Amino acid sequence: MKKTLELSNGSTMPQLGFGVFQIPNYGDAKKATLQAINAGYRLIDTASAYMNEKAVGEAIKDSGVKREDLFVTTKLWIQDMGYEATQKAIDQSLKRLGLDYLDLYLIHQPLNDVYGSWRAMEEAYDAGKLKVIGVANFENDRLQDLMMNNRIAPMVNQIELHPFRAQFDRVRWLQEHGIVVEAWGPFAEGKNQIFSNPVIQRIAKAHKKTTGQVILRWLTQRGIVVIPKSVHEERIIENANISNFDLSSAEMKMMGTLDQKRSLFGNMHDPETVATLGQAHFDYDKM
Ligand SMILES: NC(=O)c1ccc[n+]([C@@H]2O[C@H](COP(=O)([O-])OP(=O)(O)OC[C@H]3O[C@@H](n4cnc5c(N)ncnc54)[C@H](OP(=O)(O)O)[C@@H]3O)[C@@H](O)[C@H]2O)c1
Question: pLDDT for 148-170, tens place per residue?
Fold first, then answer.
């Protein structure tokens, strides 16, 4: 697998990263992040809404790995959308993480005052506080509009991507437009018994790999960044061990047959989902 992918601003980002969603306990988040860095992960994906930026920052500090060798991502939650709120949110995330710049900053959801936030992010990018700026969960039509009406185009879109939601057309459009695609929930958070799926198991057996490794390889072979999460060290190590085998085109196609062409995590076009998300308020310092 390619170890890094090139972004539209000429910089690079690791193709393998570690996600820390749903690890709200300080000790667990710090421990898992440290284990990941020790296992060779260089990209860490957190978010203000995960309420563990502080623990991630402590792990980074304790890891002894040079700052410039790490690629730290965090995200802007809906309650901080808008020009001034975003300026503040960036500084607060930096403070919690104990860093003076972020490698990647993402708008977490395509809701509220996206355009005000994006202007604040462009300015922070110009100032060197944010090295790469992007979005998450944006449909291609929203991205097209954002690109047409701003100075800097988003460089990354982090979206739900796993064997049950392959998103071939959406990914193709993003890649054709120079936007790096990052897969969240690469294991569908374990839904649909993904780790014992017979199609994936058959491919895994042929390569003497685990089903998790096959899923990650299927994504990285499509030129996608993966950020699997685990709080178990043996799985953290296993998930990073995906660079020494390739899936054949027939195997890639077999993986594609699992696509259910719908989200397993709710419908963002449903007003009720938008209302629930828009009302979700987090106390980032709670940890
Ligand atoms: N932008 C967004 O809106 C968004 C949304 C969701 C996620 N994300 C990001 O994407 C990252 C990954 O997604 P995710 O955390 O939702 O889910 P995920 O990575 O698809 O799945 C994590 C689940 O799989 C289990 N697991 C991990 N490796 C395994 C292995 N080798 N064998 C068996 N089970 C394994 C984990 O269990 P254990 O932990 O118990 O090992 C956990 O239950 C997040 O952490 C976050 O950084 C972003």
Answer: 999 999 999 999 999 999 999 99
Tell me if 73 sits within 8 A of 102, measured CB to CB: yes
pLDDT at 285: 84
Show the domain range for 89.
Answer: 4-278
For residue 65, count other CB atoms closer than 10 A to its CB: 14
Structure tokens at 257: 């047959």
Ligand 1 near 266 CB (within 6 A): no
Kindly state whether residue 236 falls inside one of the protein's structural domains: yes
**Atom from ligand 1 closest to the CA of residue 187:** 20
Catalytic entry in 50, 105, 125, 284: 50
Q: Is 45 in the pocket of ligand 1 (CB under 6 A)?
A: yes
Q: What is the pTM of this model?
A: 0.98
50 labelled catalytic: yes
SS3 181: strand
- Protein residue with its CA nearest to atom 39 in ligand 1: 230
Asked if residue 244 belongs to a domain, the reply is yes
Q: Is any atom of ligand 1 closer than 6 Å to the C-beta of 134?
A: no
- Measure 182 CA to ligand 1 centroid, in angstroms: 13
The number of distinct structural domains making up the chain is: 1
Burial class (CB in 10 A: 0-12, 13-18, 19+), 157: buried
**Radius of gyration of the chain, Cα coordinates, nearest whole angstrom:** 18
